[in-house]
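quick one, 513 residues, struct below
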Amino acid sequence: MADAKDVTVIIDGVPVQVPVNTYVWDACRKVGLEIPNFCYIPGLRAFGACRMCVVEVSGRKGFELVTSCSTPVADGMEVRTINERVWQQRNMIMEALDTDHPVDCPICEANGDCRLQDYGYEYGVTGIDTRRPKVVRPSERLSPAIDIDRDRCVMCGRCVRVCDEVVGATALSIVERGLESLIDAPFGKSLLETPCVSCGQCVEVCPVGALSSRINLKMEHHWWQRKTETTCNSCSVGCTIKLGSTRNTIYEVRSDDALGLNDGLTCVKGRFAQDWINSNNRLSLPLVRRDGRLVTATWEEALDLVASKLNGMRGQLGVVASPKLTNEENYVLQKVARLGLGTNNIDYDGRSQEAPALQVLGDMLGYPAPTNNFLDTRMKSGCILTIGDSIYETHPVYAYQLQRMVRLMDKKLIVISPRWTKMCDWSTVWLAPHAGTEELLVNGIARVMLDAGLLHAALDGRHENGADYLASLGAPEFALDAVSRATGVDANNIVVAAYLYATGGTNEGPEPL
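---
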């Protein structure tokens, strides 16, 4: 049964049910029709720059040509995705784009993975438009990581929009007007003089190879590369990335739209910090210390030595995990520690930075870990609270998604950090307590929520020793004025944070004291 907010669209004679306000392009994609386009990225605001996605839709004057990436569906709308009229329009656009495009496919980094190349074949581009001289611009180095060849650029604006809307860096812009329009850093600066974070998303989304990375692992034809999906181990977000490999060598790191919880996003570490995989300095055989020197040994010798050493120290060991491991790998490690080595002494090296938040969670819920996964906080939360280090540097992809929630979806963000971080720029409330008083501040916020009756009944039975914790909040040191004096945070801001967090961002509380 269709949802009450669904509408029915007839695409090439086939009825399709999609949510209201869906763009025609997305509706076509739902039934497996890939409408050609250069500028559209699902999830970004409509732009309609390249005009390649024209289709015919029914209107008051019969069937009209519209850009499918910026036209919302309407109930009963009929859509024709291809006919002679649509084909001619797309052919005309391709001829215009090809006027200034260089014929350098054999040496282009996007050769074999280029939309202009693909659509040129599909829509019969037969030659170069000679109605005006070809505009030639030299290639340029925007930063130590990124080059731009403006002759290849089709001015789709993808790089500018993903930098602004997705990453929140606003390091690229469209400058000049008309035929002179081009992509550049604002005011002609180097990207090093902008908020650029070198994430490489502009290179990722470029459909034609105008933007390229100077620090690609190596160059190799796309059609020779084997694409393997894996989990990035640069931080604990767990982004899904695609490694392009040939002959046991990694050549490229990319991601795809709607792939993994990162939704195709990568950061500077995930994209450019994988070169260690191909390093000649990596050990290919284990080393065993003999007579004070490390010497090469076989795998059997090394594993037997490690097993015998560990077996002789059962119950006397501690295990330190890495936050870069996947959940599955950490699960196996704790099994090895508890069952194999007979120890419950398990820790990880990221705990010291997160100690205040984990202590509060342990006291509140009996479980010192976040209460929601990344996907739920991104898709369902109305208010997010972060404590401690800047996740824009430590967990960049998740931070990109949070700033997008705040800027474009009107979600609320509370930042608790003694020092300024990038996330403070987008926060609704920034609480800057004295270093070491973060735990007291969070307990003070909980006290405000308790006194105002904002603690939700749904929490009942979902935490350990909850009644004891709530009773402890009655202590004098957790009173609003006492917490404000001890932490140096204004009492009104504490109240606002408490109300925002408790109501999912819908209520900022009473008037200031």
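The longest strand covers residues 240-246.
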